[in-house]
Amino acid sequence: MSSNWRPATKLVHGGTLRSQYGETSEAIYLTQGFVYDSAEAAEARFKGETDGFIYARYGSPTNDMFEKRMCMLEGAEDARATASGMAAVTAAIMCQLKAGDHVIGARALFGSCRWVIETLAPRYGIEFTLVDGRDMTNWEQAIRPNTKVMFLESPTNPTLEVVDIAGVAKLCNQIGAKLVVDNVFATPLFQKPLELGAHVVVYSATKHIDGQGRCLGGVVLSSKEWIDENLHDYFRHSGPAMSPFNAWTLLKGIETLPLRVRQQTENAARVADFLAEHPKIGKVIYPGRADHPQADLIARQMTGGSTLVAFEMKGGKEAAFALQNALEIVRISNNLGDAKSLITHPATTTHKNLTDEARAELGISVGTVRLSCGIEDGTDLIEDFDQALKRAGV
Ligand SMILES: *Cc1c(COP(=O)(O)O)cnc(C)c1O
């Protein structure tokens, strides 16, 4: 039974839908619409009496394969593939809120997610509270009679803090709210938010799921009931649908997800240990290390470390820039989850729009650097950091 397959098998075979030609690799169905054998057949399709596709904004065969494969991996009943991770986040939040509702978010959020909650939602009369998500009492105290949604990311970008997903899910259940988890940093392999009690999971498939730097994509996963009641109509009529070409690219990416994430995580753990011993580096934050401030919670809710490492250059911005410029293999880019190792300086790139105060609250200093490990040989990465730290004479 396919539901008993282990993850690596699901990721290669799950959801495959073969045409009459029996192609080995998944086919790309680049079609906007579908033709019906008769007017009666069209009527029956629109009434929902027969299965089948109607229009590519609603769903199409290649996207369907991607959604089914993601459902198998996540243990979700249903999913919708979206054009980007932000389309997934925006749809998952906005489809279940209306004027007068209240949303609570952990303040350590990917920049655009934070914009949706603190700038976009209030324009439509939705109230919000951002809290330090590490402390459960903050969530509890932020609850209002009109709280409908809680939103978090764990581990967070870029400082790799973790939030107790089961704890927040329990609070949601007590008040009838829904918990949406952005699971990008953990990957679907190392953390299962639905099993921990979350109601909705979202991904930027742009990251580890593609994993080879090619296309944007996203996905929202939940129960069939939640999707039918909240997302189904919103998705059809507001139109964040993924391109079938991207769905195909992501289906190919997902086949090798466990191989890549395993290698990236092994590399990240090795580089983190190397950096932690280096005299030019202050603090290293890595969810797989015993010295992570929340190591106990990580052991409870995650089954792997991370493909990312955050660290502090003692010499501040100048040292952080010198290090990045001296690296030869690791490339400077704000993306993550790629086969190529990528490094970024959050204070001047991904988090430059935050106030100094907001950055300080998130633990982002001028010396903070975020590394996304690729699938290169780990020894080469360590040698690259070794030579770059020597050359970065600060
Ligand atoms: C990249 C990212 C997003 C947004 O995804 P896009 O595909 O770039 O739209 C959302 N959340 C997290 C945690 C991300 O890393």
TrEMBL record:
GO terms for molecular function: transferase activity. The keyword tRNA processing does not apply. The modification N6-(pyridoxal phosphate)lysine is found at K207. It holds the Pfam family Cys_Met_Meta_PP. Pathway: Amino-acid biosynthesis; L-methionine biosynthesis via de novo pathway; L-homocysteine from O-succinyl-L-homoserine: step 1/1. It catalyses: O-succinyl-L-homoserine + hydrogen sulfide = L-homocysteine + succinate. Its cofactor is pyridoxal 5'-phosphate. Its EC number is 2.5.1.-. Keywords: Amino-acid biosynthesis, Methionine biosynthesis, Pyridoxal phosphate, Transferase. SUPFAM superfamilies: PLP-dependent transferases. HAMAP family: MetZ. Belongs to the trans-sulfuration enzymes family. MetZ subfamily. Homotetramer. Catalyzes the formation of L-homocysteine from O-succinyl-L-homoserine (OSHS) and hydrogen sulfide. This is O-succinylhomoserine sulfhydrylase. It comes from Rhizobium halophytocola.
